[in-house]
Amino acid sequence: MLQQIARQQDIVEIAPQGSTPKAAALAHVAEQYGYTYGMACRTGFKNSLVQVRMYRDPRPDARVREAATITAHPQAGNGGMVPGLGQGSLKPLPEAVGAVAVLKDLITFDVMAQYIADRSQKVKGYLACAVLTVIMLIDRSPVEAVASGGAVALLFTVAFKVGVIRRRKITQRLTAAGFLAVRDEQGGQRFLRPGQQLPGHANPFAA
Questions:
Q1: Rg, the chain, Cα only
Q2: How far is CA 168 from the centre of its chain?
Q3: How far is residue 168's CA from residue 115's CA, in Å, rounded to a whole number?
Q4: CB 67 within 8 A of CB 40
Q5: In the sheet that 49-56 helps form, which strands lie side by side, from edge to edge?
Q6: Are 76 and 82 in contact (CB under 8 A)?
Q7: Is 161 buried (19+), middle (13-18) or exposed (0-12) by CB count in 10 A?
Q8: Which end of the chain is more exposed for a tag (fewer CB within 10 A), N or C?
Q9: Contacting residues for 66 by C-beta, under 8 A, at least 6 apart
Q10: Is the whole model's pTM more than 0.85, yes or no?
Q11: Which class for 192: exposed (0-12), middle (13-18), buried (19 or more C-beta within 10 A)?
Q12: Each residue of 1-31: pLDDT tens digit?
């Protein structure tokens, strides 16, 4: 990641192995070098990677922050201290814990968007339960088949509900932290700091 930053890329991609806390810690480091959080998703084999995309922040205060960080951490890319993290680890220092927690919420919110079922997904899930019940009727008693199909349907329902509740709690925390809810061009919900636009190189929906 630091090599990407050193090249002053417009986009920096972070993909620690399946760990949202690690991704949030690295995103915080990138922010100190003048980048801003863009989006996150799960990718890779069996969705084992949490991929975070950071964008170079064009605002003047971001350049001031970048210059101050480079001055304070001249050996960051050579094994030295990096801003906000302990030496040789991804554990946030006390002064960075709050900022990393906010980034963790932003990442989790975006990642969960992949799994929050819309109406069509729910229909497909319950249809699969019905098909399972019919298949089991072939060689099992009606009671066993209905019980098995009903159990799977219940698991679907609980999973949907838990996801919605968890995302609602994250929304409350981000709102309390001063973030504003907006919609991107695909209609997905995002959170931005006051005065911030949806980030991105050649941002097509900046207004």
A1: 21
A2: 15
A3: 14
A4: no
A5: 11-14, 49-56, 35-43
A6: yes
A7: exposed
A8: C
A9: 32, 33, 34
A10: no
A11: middle
A12: 888 998 888 999 998 766 899 999 999 999 9
CB atoms closer than 10 angstroms to residue 57: 20
Q: How far apart are CA 199 and CA 49, in angstroms?
A: 22
Mean pLDDT of the chain: 81
Residue-by-residue pLDDT tens, the chain, 207 positions = 888 998 888 999 998 766 899 999 999 999 999 999 989 988 877 777 889 999 998 889 999 999 999 999 988 878 888 999 988 888 999 999 999 999 999 999 998 886 664 455 566 666 666 666 667 667 766 766 666 666 666 666 666 777 778 888 999 999 999 999 888 877 788 898 887 777 654 444 443
d(CA 86, CA 4): 21
Among 135, 136, 130, 134, which Cα is nearest to 150's? 130
Q: Contact, 30 vs 45, CB < 8 A?
A: no
Q: CA torsion, points 188, 193, 197, 199, in degrees to nearest 10?
A: -70
Q: Which two tokens stand for residue 130?
A: 């019905």
Residue with tokens 């001055």: 71
Q: Alpha helix locations (H) across 50-187?
A: 60-72, 97-112, 119-136, 142-176
How many Å apart are CA 146 and CA 161, to the nearest integer? Answer: 22
